[in-house]
Write a structure and sequence with these properties.
114 residues, mainly beta, four-stranded antiparallel sheet, globular
């Protein structure tokens, strides 16, 4: 059974930082491309960042330079370091493994106050 468990969300003031984690089980983690997505209220889910099995990264334009995705294959975990957070970053952040349809976590809430 595949499980993706996100953690690290919370409430932070604008300009602050948070680090999200996603622990995976039930998959051959090192072979999977992984990603972070987010969904704000009344908006569609959108890409935040992805990282391939080889460690190549890709970011949505609005996050590049502020967010950093990384992975630790020994821990079956990916991370999202989020800096200079803005109120518009408020959303539920989801971890995903693989392509379509892939596997999704349950999400972790990030709230950025102004």
């Amino acid at each position: 059974q595949v499980q993706l468990v996100e953690s690290g969300g919370g409430l932070v003031r604008a300009g602050g930082s948070l680090r999200l984690s996603c622990a995976a089980s039930g998959i051959n983690f090192s072979r999977y491309a992984m990603g972070w997505y987010r969904q704000a209220p009344r908006k569609q889910r959108e890409l935040v960042a992805t990282i391939t099995s080889g460690g190549s990264t890709n970011y949505a334009d609005s996050m590049e330079g502020r967010f950093a995705i990384s992975r630790d294959n020994a821990k079956n975990t990916i991370y999202l370091q989020m800096n200079i957070l803005k109120p518009e970053d408020t959303a539920v952040y989801y971890c995903k493994a693989g392509g379509v349809p892939g596997y999704w976590g349950q999400g972790t809430q990030v709230t950025v106050s102004s």
